[in-house]
Amino acid sequence: MTNILFAAEKSDLYLGDTIYYLVLFAILLLAVKHFAWGPVTDMMEKRRQQVIEDIDKAADERKKAEILAGEREEQLKSSRQEATQILSTAKTNAEAAGKDILNQANEEAKNIREKAKADAIQAKSDALNEAQAQVADISVQIAEKVIAKNLSAADQKDLVDQFIKGLNK
Question: Where are the transmembrane segments (predicted)?
Fold first, then answer.
């Protein structure tokens, strides 16, 4: 103890003052703990809880965003496949429609050719019949002059028909 007293004499520090300062320091620590440390730790705990909740919410939101992004990506792939299928169907339909139009045009051209051929045959037949009628009339006139007699109309017609049949052979 003499060392403590010796040190106290040297620095003018006494044991009573030291105890007094220690008691005051202890009281100050208790006051700080009661009035400052408790509210500060409570505030820090609330803040820690808030940060944890915010991090959990952010993680949940990130997971939701990832799920939505995956769904959107899947929808985009589906849309692309659907668009490709629509284009393929449209192309197939266009080709089929083109073939149908071409077939119809060919059929119509064939019908027109057949009708033209039939019309030509009919025109030829009509021309031959008209020519036969004219030849018959001319033949009758020539025969009248040659024979110099009048034949009845029925006789003349029979003669002309026989003559035409002979020409066709």
Answer: 19-40
